């Protein structure tokens, strides 16, 4: 693992925007586990390798992608409802990604900050509450607030607008290719936190 200094924000910037799952909170395996358990009764076996390549997609986009890619007919509402129930039962096990959350705590009250997540609001708020971050952000933007999820830039642009900061003055923290593409389309610089494990994963766009 690389030094935490590798993901410190480099001036100039006026605001910081953070993805939630896999960036602030170590939730990716839990999301995989609960998605897989929710889909199995409907005849679909989700694999970890494929799922990890789709991180950043909203729930509806994930199911749409599965149905299109594998010629399946998962019911988005039924599967999502089941998955969220399973996730909430295990949400107490979620841990923070300290290298990133340390940055949040350091900048709290000093730099405008937002969460911009492709998950729905209730799940994001519950996750942030578990890791004691819920009250540290100026605003939280989720898939419930915008017409299109990542890799479209809508979530990040909405966050910048709420923070009253130009998109070009924002730094985004992300862990997914879709999220990094969304930041690029929004005209924002981005830090791929996967640099903590792989020095080739830094993106400044």
From TrEMBL:
This is HAD family phosphatase. It holds the Pfam family HAD_2. One of its GO terms (molecular function) is sugar-phosphatase activity. It comes from Aetokthonos hydrillicola Thurmond2011. InterPro entries: HAD-like_sf, HAD-like_SPP, HAD-SF_hydro_IA, HAD_2, HAD_sf, PGP-like_dom2. It comes from the Bacteria.
């Amino acid at each position: 693992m690389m030094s935490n200094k590798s993901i410190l924000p480099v001036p100039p910037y006026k605001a910081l925007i953070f993805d939630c799952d896999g960036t602030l909170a170590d939730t990716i395996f839990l999301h995989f586990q609960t998605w897989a358990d929710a889909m199995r009764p409907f005849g679909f076996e989700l694999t970890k390798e494929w799922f990890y390549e789709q991180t950043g997609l909203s729930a509806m986009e994930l199911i749409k992608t599965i149905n299109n890619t594998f010629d399946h007919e998962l019911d988005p509402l039924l599967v999502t409802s089941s998955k969220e129930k399973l996730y909430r039962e295990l949400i107490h096990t979620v841990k923070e990604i300290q290298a990133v959350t340390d940055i949040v705590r350091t900048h709290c009250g000093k730099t405008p900050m937002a969460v911009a997540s492709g998950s729905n609001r209730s799940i994001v708020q519950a996750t942030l509450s578990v890791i004691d971050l819920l009250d540290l952000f100026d605003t939280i933007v989720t898939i419930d607030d915008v017409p299109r999820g990542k890799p479209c830039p809508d979530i990040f642009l909405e966050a910048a607008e709420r923070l009253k900061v130009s998109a070009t003055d924002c730094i985004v923290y992300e862990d997914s290719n879709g999220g990094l593409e969304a930041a690029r389309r929004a005209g924002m610089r981005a830090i791929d936190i996967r640099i903590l494990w792989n020095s080739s994963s830094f993106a400044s766009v």
